Sequence to fold (339 residues):
Amino acid sequence: MKERLQKIRENAVEKIQAAVDLNALNDARVAILGKKGELTSVLKSMKDVAPEDRPKVGQLVNETREEIEKLLDEAKNRMETAAREAKLRAEVIDVTLPAKKNNVGHRHPNTIALEEVERIFIGMGYEVMEGPEIEYDLYNFEKLNIPEGHPAKDEQDTFYITKDILLRTQTSPCQARAMETGKLPIRMISPGRVFRSDEVDATHSPSFHQIEGLVVDKNITFADLKGTLEEFAKELFGPETKTKFRPHHFPFTEPSAEVDVSCFKCGGKGCRFCKGSGWIEILGCGMVHPHVLEMCGIDPKEYTGFAFGVGLERIALLKYEIDDMRLLYENDIRFLKQF
Ligand code: DAH
Fold:
C-alpha cells in the first residue's frame, strides 16, 4: 500500500509540473483528488485492508493527500504571481513620455469682433435679427432703390441661382425684411455672410460678412445717426476715437455718408497703418430713403430712420492688426489662437 501511495504521489508531482497554466492545474487537481481520482479509489478500497492496519493506512493516505494539496497550492500561487507580474509589466506607464494633448479650438477673430459689436448695440437697446443668405433680387436690390439696370448692380455682381434668386451681396435686404414685419419702432442689427463675384486677394473674398443696422421711429434725425455711430466707434476703438462723416452715395439712403475713425494706432497724426492720413474708413450709412420706407409699407411722412452697414472682416483686421484677409479663412489654429 505504501508503494501504491508513493506511486500516486510521484504521478501527482509529474502532473503538477506538466501543468502550463491555472486551467491545466485545475484539471490535474480533479484527476488526482477528484471523485474518480486515484486517491479516492484508494480510500474506497480501505474495506479490503485488515482492520488493525486501517488506522495506519488511513493516516498514510491523509498524509499523501495533504502533501499533494500543498504542492497544488504552491503551484497555483506561483502561477498567479507570475500572471500578475506579467500583467503589471504589460500595463506599465512611462510617466516620462510626452502627454497626448487635447487640441482645443479657439474663437475666430470674426466671432470675437462680432460679439463685441453685438454687445455694444444690444447695450443701446437694439435687437439682433438674421436674414437669409440666399435672397430674392427683390430684397437685395429692388426694395433698396436699385432697379433693373442700375449701375450698383454691376458693382455688386454676385452668384445667381435664378434670374430672381441670388446669394445676397449685402446685409441691407434685412432692412426691408425688418420694415415689412410692420412692427415699429425698429432698432436692430443684422449680421451675416454676404457674397460677391470677386477674386481672392489680401482685401477681397467672394464671401465675407457684414453687420447691418437700422433704426426707424418718429422724429429720427441725422443727429441720432451721428450720435449713435460716434458712441459705437468710441466703444469699439477706445474713448479718444474721433469720427468724420464724409458725404457719399448709396441708393437706399439719402443723405448718405461714409464714416472714418481717427487712427487708433497713431491717434490721427498719420502712420503706416492709416496710410499717413490719420483716418480709417469703417462703414457706410445714411437716412433711410423715403422711397425705401414707402416700398416697405412705412409712411415716410410719419416715420424716419437711419441705417448703416459695417464690414465685419474690416473691423477684425483693423482691431487685431491683421494685414491679409486670407488669413481669416485658413482657420489655422496657430494663427487663430493669437487673438
Ligand atoms: N450695403 C452697403 C454695401 O455693401 C453698405 C451700407 C451703406 C449699408 C449704407 C447701409 C447704409 O445700411 O446705410 O456697400
